[in-house]
Amino acid sequence: MLITPTTNLTTIGHYVKTATLYYVKMTVLVTCTSVSLLAMNDANADVNDNQTVASQSIASQSVGVKEQRITDSGKRAVAAEKAGNITTKYSDYPSVIELYSDDELNQLIAENTHLKRVRADECQLVADIKVRAELVKLPTYQFLWGDMLAWGVCVDKNAELGIYFMRAAARQGLPRALEQLGRYYVQGKFVQQDIERALPLFEQSAKLGFLPAKVQWAELLIKGHGSPYDYQTAYSYLYNTVTADVKMHNKLTILLAKLENLMPKRVVIAAKNAAKYN
């Protein structure tokens, strides 16, 4: 075959054109790959940022919001059970019952309806109550857990452990725990009867304003227990009490009159004057 200069130029042009197209293709491929990698990095960064924000958001949420997540999870468990999903167990999910706030539990304890409430909630909060008593050491939950153990409400009865947690709550100054322990010592319930041991428990609870403790302390003093030096203080606590309960008001009036009979007039006046500044 005869090769002319024209043929050589055509061949060279063909190779140049092919090389140029290959270079362009490779450039486009590299550019696309770089863009893809940048997009992936940006996406990963967004995910990490979102996870960080989510973590911060969860950490900053209120207790009520966190408890709502527990409630929602529990509702899903109930729905799964009703749908016949045998692989889902209710116990695998948190309780659908919202935890009691400290104020709510204090109110239940003051009304002596705390155990009734635990039963009404079908014992679904036992694990949560135990954690808050044993690990968090909240006095209201220590008292509730102790009462549940002492009476065997939703748990196996264990009076010794129950009294232990009641004492733990009393040491933290929970008025109802102090009063209930004092009452148990008076009655000899769970513990050996020891009225003298009950007196300081009633006194401390009365000092914190718990009305049942004020009444029981005064009654024991009137019966001759304790020291006459405590008459004035007990009188002051009763005299300073405000109540809308007519029966309780009448009871306080009778106790005050009995204490007055045990004290010199000047001491009665001093007790009334002391109450004015409380």
From TrEMBL:
Keywords for the protein's UniProt record, in alphabetical order: Cell projection, Cilium, Flagellum
SUPFAM superfamilies cross-referenced by the UniProt entry: HCP-like
Record-linked Gene3D superfamilies: Tetratricopeptide repeat domain (1.25.40.10)
Pfam family, one: Sel1
Cell cycle among keywords: no
Official protein name in the record: Putative sodium-type flagellar protein MotX
